[in-house]
Design goal:
By secondary structure, this protein is mostly helical. It has one domain: Orthogonal Bundle (Ammonium transporter fold), CATH 1.10.3430. A three-stranded mixed β-sheet has the order 1-3-2. Helix 6 runs antiparallel to helix 16 and helix 8 runs antiparallel to helix 9. The longest helix has 30 residues. It is globular. The two termini are 32 Å apart. It is a multi-pass membrane protein. One of its GO terms (cellular component) is plasma membrane. This is Rh family, C glycoprotein b.
C-alpha cells in the first residue's frame, strides 16, 4: 500500500469532512451543550442565594491559566513544528485545524463522561471544561508530531476524531475509576498521545521515505521559528501543569515544581548535547525539544510534595534521557523498529511521560502524614467518598495502574487507527512528496514565481543576459 500511486487532491474530501463534521458539531452542541451555573445568566440569583460575589466566580481563578494553556496549544505546539525547511505551513496550519476541531469534539466527549447533568441530560460547560478540552487536544497534537509531513489533512482529522474519543475514555478510567492523580497529564496526555502517534507511525511505515530526505531537515530561519514555539511552551508549562489543580497550596506547589524541573532540564540538555557533538557544538534539535522534557515529567507529581531538590533531580534525569534519545534512540527506532518519528516525540513526550508516571507512583506511595498533614493528605490525593479509606501505598499502586492504562490505550488505539489510515482513500502524499508544503498549500514561492512570470515580458526588448539573470534568481530563491 505504501507503493501505490498517490492522489493528493483533497479538493472534495477535505471540504466535505470539514463541513459535515462542523455541521455535526452544531447539531450535537444544540442538543447537549449548555452553560454551567457560573456562566449562565441565572448566576446573579445563584450568587445572591449563596451570598457570593462576582469575583468568586471560577472564571476569575481559571481564566489566566486557560490563556496560557491556549497559547501553548495554538502557538507553542504550532511553531515548534515549523522546523522543517519546507513544511512550516503544514506545521502551524494543520496544528490550527485539528486543534480547532478537537476542542469542539473534546467538549462533547469529556462532557459525556464528566459534566453530564443527569436531571436534564445536558452537558454543562464552564471555564474548566475549556481547559480540559485543550488538554485533550494536546494528546492529538503530540501524536501529529510523529507524523509531521507524512499525512494528509484528512488523515489528521480522522486521527483527531478517534484520538479525542480514546483520550476521553482513558482519562475517565484513569482519573475516575482507578482514582489516579495526574494534574499535568504525564500519563493521560503525554504518554497516551506519544504512543498513540508512534503506533500510527509504525502502521504507516514508509520504506522509501529516503526519497524525501532532502527536505527532512531544517534551515536557519525555520529553526528560529521553532525556537519561538519552544520558548512559549517553556514559559507557560507551569500554568499547564497547575491549571486544573485545586485552588490554594496544590496549584501553587504545581507551578513551583514544574518551574524547577524545567530549569534543571535546560542545563543538562545543553551539557549532553555539547558532550556528544563534535567540537562541543550544540544541536538545535536538542535545545528545541529536550529542554521541555522536565515539564512533561513533572505533570503527574506536580501537586505532590516532590520537594524542590526532587524537582531538580527529575529535571536533571529528563534532560539526560531525552537528549540521549535524540542521539541514539531515534535512529535505532527508524532502522530497527520501523518507526519514523519526525519530531522525536518518543524523546520529548513518551519517555518523560513514563518517567513522570513512575515518579508520581513512587511519590504517592511514600506520602505520609508527617509530610502532608492529615488534611493535606486527604486534599492532595482526594481521599474522600468511596476512597476515604485508601492509604498512600495503595494510591501508589493505582498510579502505576493508570500508567499501564495510558500505555495500552495509546499503543492499542494507535494500531487500530493506523490500520484505518492505511486505506487508500485519504489523499496522503507520495514518498518523494513528504515534508513539502507544495502538496497541500498554495505555496508562496510558487505564487511569487507566477507573479514574476506574469510581469516578465519575454517578447520585449529585455537583453538576454537580464532575462537569464532574472530566472536564475527565482530558481535559487525557490530551491533555498
Amino acid at each position: 500500500m505504501c507503493d501505490r500511486e498517490k492522489d493528493t487532491n483533497v479538493r472534495l474530501s477535505l471540504p466535505a469532512v470539514c463541513v459535515v463534521w462542523q455541521t455535526a458539531m452544531i447539531i450535537l452542541f444544540g442538543v447537549f451543550i449548555r452553560y454551567d451555573h457560573e456562566s449562565d445568566a441565572h448566576w446573579v440569583e445563584h450568587r445572591k442565594h449563596l451570598n457570593l460575589t462576582d469575583i468568586e466566580n471560577d472564571f476569575y481563578f481559571r481564566y489566566p491559566s486557560f490563556q496560557d494553556v491556549h497559547v501553548m496549544i495554538f502557538v507553542g505546539f504550532g511553531f515548534l513544528m515549523t522546523f522543517l525547511k519546507r513544511y512550516s505551513f503544514g506545521g502551524v496550519g494543520f496544528n490550527f485545524l485539528i486543534a480547532a476541531f478537537g476542542i469542539q469534539w473534546a467538549l462533547l466527549m469529556q462532557g459525556w463522561f464528566h459534566s453530564l447533568d443527569y436531571t436534564d441530560g445536558k452537558i454543562k460547560i464552564g471555564i474548566e471544561n475549556l481547559i480540559n478540552a485543550d488538554f485533550c487536544v494536546a494528546g492529538c497534537l503530540i501524536a501529529y508530531g510523529a507524523l509531521l509531513g507524512k499525512v494528509s489533512p484528512v488523515q489528521l482529522m480522522v486521527l483527531t476524531l478517534f484520538g479525542i474519543t480514546l483520550f476521553a475514555v482513558e482519562e475517565f478510567i484513569i482519573l475516575s475509576l482507578i482514582h489516579a492523580r495526574d494534574a499535568g497529564g504525564s500519563m493521560v496526555i503525554h504518554t497516551f498521545g506519544a504512543y498513540y502517534g508512534l503506533s500510527i507511525s509504525w502502521m504507516l511505515y514508509r520504506p522509501n521515505l529516503h526519497q524525501s530526505s532532502r527536505l527532512q531537515g531544517s534551515v536557519y530561519h525555520s529553526d528560529v521559528f521553532a525556537m519561538i514555539g519552544t520558548l512559549f511552551l517553556w514559559m507557560f508549562w507551569p500554568s499547564f501543569n497547575s491549571a486544573i489543580c485545586d485552588h490554594g497550596d496544590g496549584q501553587h506547589r504545581a507551578a513551583i515544581n514544574t518551574y524547577l524541573c524545567l530549569a534543571s532540564t535546560v542545563l543538562t540538555t545543553v551539557a549532553i548535547s555539547s558532550l556528544f557533538q563534535k567540537h562541543g557544538k550544540l544541536d538545535m534539535v536538542h535545545i528545541q525539544n529536550s529542554t521541555l522534557a522536565g515539564g512533561v515529567a513533572a505533570g503527574t507529581a506536580a501537586e505532590f510534595m516532590l520537594m524542590p531538590y526532587g524537582c531538580l533531580i527529575v529535571g536533571f534525569c529528563c534532560g539526560v534521557i531525552s537528549t540521549l534519545g535524540y542521539i541514539f534512540l531515534t535512529p535505532f527506532m527508524e532502522k530497527r523498529l520501523k518507526i519514523q518519528d519526525t519530531c522525536g516525540i518518543h524523546n520529548l513526550h513518551a519517555m518523560p511521560g513514563v518517567i513522570g508516571g513512575i515518579v508520581g507512583a513512587v511519590t504517592a506511595a511514600s506520602a505520609s502524614v508527617e509530610v502532608y498533614g492529615h488534611e493535606g493528605l486527604v486534599n492532595t490525593f482526594d481521599f474522600e467518598g468511596k476512597f476515604k479509606d485508601m492509604v498512600p501505598t495503595t494510591q501508589g499502586g493505582h498510579q502505576a495502574a493508570g500508567l499501564c492504562v495510558a500505555l495500552c490505550f495509546g499503543i492499542g488505539g494507535g494500531i487500530i487507527v493506523g490500520a484505518i489510515l492505511r486505506l487508500p482513500i485519504w489523499g496522503d502524499p507520495a514518498d518523494d512528496d513528504c515534508f513539502d508544503d507544495e502538496t497541500y498549500w498554495e505555496d508562496v514561492r510558487i505564487c511569487n514565481v507566477k507573479s514574476e512570470v506574469s510581469r516578465l515580458d519575454l517578447n520585449g526588448p529585455l537583453p538576454c543576459f537580464l532575462s537569464f539573470s532574472h530566472w536564475t534568481k527565482m530558481f535559487i530563491s525557490y530551491n533555498q
